Amino acid sequence: DARAASRAMGAPSRRRATTTTTSPSSPSFVLGGRGARRVVRTAATEGEMTPEEQFAAASVGIPDYDPDAIFPRTKERDPYRRLGISDESTFEEVQDARNYLVETYRAHVAGVEAIEQAFDKIINDRLSTRKKAKGMKKALRKQKKGENYVPPFMERLKAQFEKPDQTTIMRRALMYAIMMGWAIVSAGNAPSGPAFQMAISFGLCVYFLHDKRGGAAVGAPLGKSFINAFAALSLGFVVGSLFPLYIPIFPPAWGPELILSLFSMVSFFIFATFLK
Predict the structure, then answer these.
(1) Is this prediction's pTM over 0.70?
(2) Dihedral angle at the C-alpha atoms of 96, 99, 100, 106, nearest 10 degrees?
């Protein structure tokens, strides 16, 4: 058969060719395929490929190596023309062209450098174009939104609040200011702290919210007002716990209970006055 005839003529078998190595004095590197390994000489090799290497190259579909091959487009300025591809080529096509040319003209040092420069320029240009496109998209979105753009979550949050008339604001501000003053004055005398003032402030917040929403006349749910008042209480406790740590402006005589109650009353005032 053809395989026996090939062996009879002295041609090395494919298995033998795939395991052929070069001498230590001949610089080389190994490229592997699927179940096959071949030796590729570097640009430092001056001699031609051995018959075993030529057969190994042909067995994996790679043309014979010509050590005298010179890359003809080293002076071509356009990187796409230098690689022999169009400017609409995909990244895979650009990479394949680069690999093929480097493989073919690896003995021509100047040619390999020109190929690498063209490849790097194409990649850098495409990355720059992509960044510019992203920047333009952001600029267009910002231009469409305008300078007064408000994020959607802020719009939803603002939609939950409304500003009442000035008289309502002044009355409720005065009422909660009285409650805060009462809590400060009685802080040293009441053993339980400003718990009584907090209970009254909580009840007032529930009453104002329920009354603003129509109260029992329109069947407004009282539970929602309780939930809102509890949210105001929680917000006041969180802010009152963190604020004194970073901005210690309160007198040392004021205990944590008093400071938390003051921030909670401020939160009650905001929710009872501005929440819909």
Answers:
(1) no
(2) 170
DSSP letter (8 states) at residue 31: E
Comparison of pLDDT for 192 and 129, the residue scoring more: 129
* Helix/strand/coil for 78: coil
Q: Please give the C-alpha separations between residue 88 and each of 80, 91, 196, 245, in angstroms, as whole numbers.
A: 9, 9, 77, 61
Residue 66, Cβ neighbours under 10 Å: how many? 13
Please report the DSSP string for 188-205 in residue order.
TT-TT-THHHHHHHHHHH
Query: pLDDT digits over 159-171, tens only?
Result: 888 888 999 999 9
DSSP label at 105?
T
- Give the phi and the psi of residue 106 in degrees, each rounded to 5: -70, -20
pLDDT over 60 (residue 42): no
Residues in the chain: 276
pLDDT at 175 (0 to 100): 92
How far apart (Å, rounded) are the C-alpha atoms in residues 130 and 17?
A: 46
Half-sphere exposure of residue 91: CA atoms within 13 angstroms, side-chain side = 6
At residue 32, the 3 state secondary structure works out as strand
Residue 268 pLDDT class (50, 70, 90 cuts) = very high
Q: Residue 154 CA to chain centroid, in angstroms?
A: 22
- Let me know the angle formed at the C-alpha of 113 by 112 and 117, rounded to the nearest 5 degrees: 120
Per-residue pLDDT tens digits for 81-119: 999 998 888 989 999 999 999 998 988 899 899 999 999
Collapsing DSSP states into helix, strand and coil, what is residue 29? strand
